[in-house]
């Protein structure tokens, strides 16, 4: 089987999973963020590390808009069209053409809440939500429609699915708050339900890059064929099987992005990976809890992936 078939096998409960797919994600130098240079760097990384699918880094971040200074200003949030997304979509198209026959091509998708944070900064966004939620909610709705344009263009370009990253429900933000249910989750679900209907393989990423969580319950009904998240939940440290049971789907993760993969040698990484795989769930993909630092040695990444591929089950 090729990499495409091996990854999809993780979803097939009628067959025993004998091969453990693996993938790690990082941002490339800005000179590789656009055009053909981005396509070639993604392919170089994919082939060097031997990872099992192509994950496209999203670099067309919403521009900062200093004119949105108070909550009511969100009513003037612009809706971005294809001219804004064209380069990112062409990168997706080029990677589908180059690697789509051998491996799944998965596009990163930042959530509407995350894009709202890019627009004004995370601190200002939270301040506006707490002061006057309705106009901010309208602004996030406009952002959602912008992202829908991007999603549909990527699907037309041939991507197999999305790595949908969500934030907003962290302990220091809106965890347990009605504002999360009213101003974040509906827009996440709007996009995720659409990609879930139209795409073959989607990954739900509950992102703890800003802060952690003490409760993952709000995300249990989020769509996604595989869930990727940290194993840290407040003061608890969960194991991958607990995540599988919690979400009712395969888990991707197990590796701490700021741990051995960043600081260790390839042999250290191999030892770490073997210890993780000993207790891996039946349906499982090796990966990190989030994007790993760009400074991580690619040799370390390849070492972890090779151990996963050689693991006997």
Can you describe what's shown?
- There is one protein chain.
- By secondary structure, this protein is an alpha/beta fold.
- It has one domain (3-310): TIM Barrel (Alpha-Beta Barrel), CATH 3.20.20.
- The protein has helices at residues 3-8, 35-49, 82-99, 112-120, 122-131, 133-157, 178-183, 185-198, 240-247, 260-263, 266-277, 298-310, and strands spanning 53-56, 104-110, 161-166, 203-206, 226-229, 232-233, 236-237, 251-255, 284-288.
- Helix 3 (82-99) links the parallel strand 1 and strand 2.
- The longest helix is centred in the middle third of the chain and has 25 residues, at 133-157.
- It is globular and about 60 Å long.
- The protein starts with a helix and ends with a helix.
Topology:
Layout: H1 3-8, H2 35-49, E1 53-56, H3 82-99, E2 104-110, H4 112-120, H5 122-131, H6 133-157, E3 161-166, H7 178-183, H8 185-198, E4 203-206, E5 226-229, E6 232-233, E7 236-237, H9 240-247, E8 251-255, H10 260-263, H11 266-277, E9 284-288, H12 298-310
Parallel strand pairs: 1-2, 2-3, 3-4, 4-5, 5-8, 8-9
Antiparallel strand pairs: 6-7
Helix pairs in contact: 2-3, 3-6, 4-5, 4-6, 5-6, 6-8, 11-12
């Amino acid at each position: 089987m090729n990499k495409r078939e091996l990854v999809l096998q993780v979803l097939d409960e009628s067959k025993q999973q004998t091969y453990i797919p693996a993938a790690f994600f990082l941002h490339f130098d800005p000179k590789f963020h656009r055009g053909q240079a981005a396509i070639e760097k993604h392919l170089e990384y994919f082939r060097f590390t031997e990872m099992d699918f192509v994950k496209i880094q999203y670099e067309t971040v919403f521009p900062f808009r200093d004119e949105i200074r108070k909550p009511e200003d969100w009513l003037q949030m612009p809706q971005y069209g294809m001219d804004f997304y064209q380069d990112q979509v062409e990168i997706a198209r080029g990677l589908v053409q180059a690697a789509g026959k051998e491996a799944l091509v998965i596009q990163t998708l930042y959530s509407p809440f995350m894009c709202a944070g890019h627009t004004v900064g995370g601190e200002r966004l939270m301040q506006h939500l707490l002061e006057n939620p309705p106009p901010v909610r309208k602004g996030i709705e406009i952002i959602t429609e912008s992202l829908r344009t991007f999603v549909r263009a990527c699907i037309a370009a041939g991507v197999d699915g999305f790595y949908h990253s969500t934030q907003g429900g962290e302990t220091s933000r809106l965890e347990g708050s009605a504002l999360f249910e009213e101003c974040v989750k509906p827009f996440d679900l709007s996009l995720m339900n659409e990609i879930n209907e139209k795409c073959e393989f989607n990954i739900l990423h509950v992102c703890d890059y800003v802060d952690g969580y003490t409760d993952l319950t709000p995300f249990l009904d989020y769509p996604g064929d595989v869930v990727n998240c940290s194993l840290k939940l407040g003061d608890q440290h969960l194991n991958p099987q607990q995540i599988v049971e919690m979400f009712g789907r395969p888990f991707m993760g197990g590796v701490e992005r700021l741990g051995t993969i960043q600081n260790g040698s390839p042999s250290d990484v191999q030892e770490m990976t073997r210890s993780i795989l000993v207790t891996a769930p039946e349906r499982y993909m090796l990966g990190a809890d989030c994007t790993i630092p760009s400074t991580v040695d690619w040799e370390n990444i390849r070492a972890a992936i090779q151990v996963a591929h050689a693991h006997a089950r």
